[in-house]
Specification:
mainly alpha; 3 helices; 72% helix; elongated
Length: 83
């Protein structure tokens, strides 16, 4: 099957799926990065076993969740526009 035989709707669906999978983590990463410029993670003065467990880091799922909180309503509004 040649590329020219593929309908444009299939390419649009592929682009939408890629955007839904890639955009929220990128948005979450950027928002957390900007947030950490204004409010950096506080460094603990003394190091002990109790303070090692309390160190706060921004993990992937925190960034992913923040991205979905921001992008979710946008995706939903785009969905409503297509109906």
């Amino acid at each position: 099957m040649r590329r020219s035989d593929t309908p444009w709707e299939a390419w649009a669906l592929l682009a939408i799926i890629i955007c839904i999978a890639a955009v929220p983590p990128l948005v979450g990463f950027l928002v957390v990065k900007i947030y950490r410029i204004f409010k950096p993670i506080e460094q603990v003065e003394e190091i002990s076993l109790a303070t090692i467990g309390l160190q706060e880091e921004d993990g992937f799922f925190k960034k992913f969740f923040i991205g979905w909180v921001i992008c979710g309503p946008l995706f939903y509004s785009l969905y409503l526009l297509t109906e």
